Amino acid sequence: MKKHINPVIALISCLALALASCGKSDADGSLPTNGQGMLQLSFDIPGYGGQSKAAEYDALAISTLRLYKVEPDGQGGATESLIRKYKPATDVPANLYLAAGKYKVTVEAGDNSEASFTHKSYAGASEFDLAAHETKIVPVVCKITNIVVRAVFDATITQKFDKSRRLYVCASDEFSRTDAENNLVPTLEYTEDTVGYFLLPEGTQNLSWGFFGESSDPEIDKNGTKTGKIQLPQQGMQYTLTLKYSKTPDGYLTVNVKVREYESAHDDSFTFSPQPTLTGDGFPIGNVTGYYLDPVKFKIASINPLSSLKMTAGGQQYDVVAGGAAVDGIAAEGIAFKKIDEYNSSLSLDGTFFAKLTSGVNELSFLMTDTDNSEGKATARVAVAGATGASSTDLWFGTANLNAIVTNPSGTDIKIRYRIAGTDAWTELNASKGADGYTYTAQATDFKAGRTYECQLLENGAENGAVRSVNTEAGIQLPNAGFEEWQKSGKAWYPYASGGTEFWGTGNPGATSLGDKFNLTTGEADPRPGSSGTTCAKLQTQFPNMAGIGKLAAGNIFVGSFGAVSGMGGTVNMGRPFTFNAKPTGLRVWYKCNVGSGDKGRIFVCLIRMTKAGATCHVVNTNDADETAFSPSDEFLYTKKSDASTLEGHILGYGDLMIESSVAQWTEVTIPINYREQYNSEKPNVLMVTASASYRGDYFEGSTDSNLFLDDVEFIY
């Protein structure tokens, strides 16, 4: 825990004051007369209950403060003369008088136990110069002086040494089990993971240790002893002894020693601070504390009387103290300020105040100013009960962690319920407590993109806190899905803007090699009703030829790109890398068409997990369609179907619409996406969407009477 002694030292000196000339009592409260200086020292230890877990021990109660006058010794050095001593340090009077010069203050706290699990010792010092008529504030930080030894018993120790296990750590240069067991040297016996504190006796330079374990297994039992040494340990450092049983050539038992600067759960230091300070009353200011029924209280200390106090919470600033007094009307806000004495005050926040804050961990910022215009700042975090929203959302898997804050220490049945906004039915989930003791989490598994959900905390069957809204992000859509962007390059039309990113492809580059009149797919000024755009895609099956020599080519558009012309056919790169932020349930399209005799139109979608290194698309070679073409319902994709070693990936989900008759008017249809259960734990990395006026176009089959108009392709989530 962090202990503050406030304020530190305010020293007012006068040039002509001799140390021996202090005729007044230090404690009589008189003001300094001409030629005198005054030292003001008051103590406050925010957050320090005065005793350790061992209720009889209070380091500060057995502390000593010494004040020295430092003067030259005439030989280039200095002498220190003790002029004040206070034991405990908190007995220092309000007023002291000093002459100008150089001084040193030291503070020692604790009983200097040489080996203890609870008795820590501290020390700190600071030197300072005082000029005539100067007021000086000197902070003194007292750090822990112990050598800290932490023991960690690996689970293997408990398992293997099932009868008993103990670790002795001694403040001695060499380990002796007899000395340890009979307390002939400062010793601590560890039987579980814990921390101990040591001070080396005079003449001792090392810590030594010995482990002794008993096992019901004779083979293990004979290797149950190990001793060692921590050489030249340093004060203020932590040495962690980790004991683990493993088969090693030197006897199965291993001990690892790690060293770092000591840090406990709280900062174990006394701080002498000149600025006004605010600390938690009954809780460390650096930790989250929860509001539940009883007010949350703070202590305020300052070296000079407090002039003003401002607090900011929930985006609102509150003027609590002005001119040294509580602001009128502040109590109605649920804020109570009480002046204890000239240098100490208390602040209390009750339910009226916290009712204005949102559920969650709220940050409270404080700005304090004293009559000497010294400013102090502090921040507290207070948990307010209720649902707080969602985190770790993965809309592909439909999962979302619903979070809530619970501050009721007797709460046992904690649930979080949720629903889609505007609906009546709630889903209730059991919630689990987090490591901070306030946060509870429950995982929903049916969240979808583009929704507004509502969630609420249920505590012991009752609602607690307001209903909280959670908005999920919209599902990702395809670029140029309304087919508004087109450009002509050479003879061929392309479905993307000039200088834009290619996403959709067509067979136009191949067909127009025989003339630009054979563009199979073009933009058409015939958008679907209600469209915000002006253009759709027209897919027209044709017979590109030269002097009557050619092959039928289907009007088509697909996610991917045209590959290359090869003889009377060519290659098509179907699919592109695509990252979904949610799992679509269908593909919605607007279409109309004419289906020629013996032909069919087709629109399909495939969500693919490519597993072959570097594979980002599937190549269809129309000159070898039997080996490279595929059906959306196929589970696997191969570079060459007859060769299993050419596996490229697998289709996680697909949707397929076969259009068997003409549709004269624009029609909206949603193509369901069917997912394979065996791939429920996977996400796709490649997307295919394909539309064709002639469904067997890759086999050069179809009708030149067939066409397909397509507009506003959209994933449904």
From TrEMBL:
Coiled-coil regions listed in the entry: none
Pfam families linked to this entry: DUF4493, PCMD
Domain Putative carbohydrate metabolism: 483-715
Region (Disordered): 515-534
InterPro entries per record: DUF4493, PCMD, Put_CMD_sf
Signal peptide region: 1-18
Source taxon at top rank: Bacteria
UniProt keyword list: Signal
Name the record gives this protein: PCMD domain-containing protein
Gene source species: Alistipes hominis
Organismal lineage: Bacteria, Pseudomonadati, Bacteroidota, Bacteroidia, Bacteroidales
